[in-house]
Amino acid sequence: MAHLSMRIDSPTNVPSGFPSQPPTFTTSDVPSDLPSDLPSSLPSFLPSTSPNFLPSFLPSSTPTEVPPKTGPVVFYAMGDMPYTNQDVKMLPTQIRNLNAYDGEFLVHIGDFIKHKNAPKDKCPEKRYQMVNDILIKSPVKTFIIPGDNDVDDCPNPKKALAYWMKYFDRFDTNW
Question: Reduced to 3 DSSP states, what percent helix, strand and coil does the chain have, rounded to the nearest 5?
Fold first, then answer.
């Protein structure tokens, strides 16, 4: 079995925690029955020219690869609101109290317009704007999808879809 040992000279004029010289590797206890096609020496960890090796030991300010996230994805979900005046008063506080430690993002699954006992203009533009003005203040990235009440059940679905697109298309790009 091959054993590697590493020797690091004492640091001189080097940031704390970094070696002043590249590590030196040597082999010991190398078995004599190694196949003959193996390289005769250890691979070099040094550049082929002689630049200062310290930059390779310093951390990069921009990572080249983001490690994959492990564990569960935790997020907030809501829908069917704000319907009532009480919901309209409560929702801004609920949105303001969201935080990224408890959930990574918010999904509103639609239906912020209630058609039962609705005013004559069931799908007024001011309703879409009001919900936008509340959700835009979310501290976490927010996604919203249209519910049937927000588009299909409106007296003029094309007009309702135009309002929805005006206020919520690419809404998540605000974060």
Answer: 25, 10, 60
In the beta sheet, which residues pair with residue 3?
28
pTM for the full model? 0.59
> Per the structure block, which two tokens stand in for 174?
């605000």
Are 142 and 108 within 8 A, CB to CB?
Answer: yes
Q: Name the nearest CA neighbour of 22 among 42, 37, 3, 40.
A: 42
> Tokens 């298309």, residue?
169
> Of 80, 100, 91, nearest to 135 (Cα)?
91
37-92 pLDDT per residue, tens:
655 555 545 445 555 444 444 455 555 566 677 889 999 999 999 988 999 999 99
Per the rule left: phi > 0, alpha: psi between -120 and 50, beta: everything else, 81 is: beta
* Joined tokens for residue 87: 């919901």
Helices (H), 51-172: 85-96, 125-135, 157-168
Which two tokens mark 124?
A: 């007024």
Helix, strand or coil for residue 105?
Answer: strand
The residue among 50, 27, 49, 23 whose CA lies nearest residue 40 is 27
